[in-house]
Design a protein that fits this description.
- By secondary structure, the chain is an alpha/beta fold.
- The protein is built from 4 helices and 8 strands.
- The strands form 2 sheets. Strands 1, 3, 4, 5, 6 and 7 form a 6-stranded mixed sheet that branches.
- Helix 4 links the parallel strand 6 and strand 7.
C-alpha cells in the first residue's frame, strides 16, 4: 500500500477587485438621493396640523418665509415673532424688498410661477401673519401657501 499524502488546502483569499466599484456606486446613489438643505433655519418653528394638505409641485420657484420665535430664546410668550427669508432674519417692513430681490434672482419663467410658502409657528399670533401677508401684497407676491403637518387621525 502506498501512502496517500494529503495536502492541506488553504482557503482562497477574498477577491476585493470589485469592492471600489461597489463603494463608488453606493456613494453615487446617496449623492443623488440626498437632499441638501440650502437654508439654515434660525426661527423656532413647530408646524400646525391640518387634514387637507397638498404638496407644492415646483420647488425652484418657492420662497420660504419662516415666522416664529428666535432659536434658543428663553422667556415669556409675549415676545414679538421674527421673520426669516432665506438665511436672513428681516423685519416685516423690509420684507417686500427681500421678496423683490429673490424674484429678481429667478428666471422670468420662475418669477411668474413664484410661490411664497409661509411656515408659521403654531403659536404665532395671527396679527403677525396678517402683517406678513400685507407686506407680501406690497411686493406683488400674491401666490401664497401655508405649510402644515398632516394630522394623525385614529381610524376605527
Amino acid at each position: 500500500m502506498s501512502m496517500i499524502e494529503r495536502r492541506r488546502r488553504a482557503v482562497p483569499g477574498l477577491n476585493t477587485a470589485s469592492l471600489p466599484d461597489l463603494i463608488f456606486t453606493v456613494l453615487f446613489f446617496f449623492m443623488i438621493v440626498t437632499h441638501m438643505r440650502t437654508e439654515t433655519v434660525k426661527v423656532e418653528y413647530h408646524a400646525p396640523q391640518g387634514t387637507e394638505l397638498a404638496r407644492l409641485n415646483k420647488k425652484s420657484s418657492v420662497i420660504h418665509v419662516y415666522i416664529g420665535k428666535p432659536l434658543g430664546w428663553q422667556g415669556d410668550g409675549q415676545t414679538a415673532s421674527v421673520v426669516q427669508v432665506g438665511d436672513k432674519v428681516v423685519s416685516i417692513e423690509n420684507l417686500p424688498d427681500y421678496i423683490r430681490e429673490e424674484r429678481n434672482r429667478m428666471s422670468p419663467e420662475e418669477a411668474r410661477e413664484m410661490t411664497v410658502s409661509i411656515r408659521a409657528d403654531k403659536d404665532t399670533p395671527m396679527r403677525v401673519v396678517t402683517e406678513v401677508k400685507q407686506a407680501l401684497r406690497q411686493a406683488k407676491a400674491l401666490r401664497i401657501s401655508y405649510s402644515a403637518e398632516e394630522r394623525k387621525t385614529d381610524k376605527k
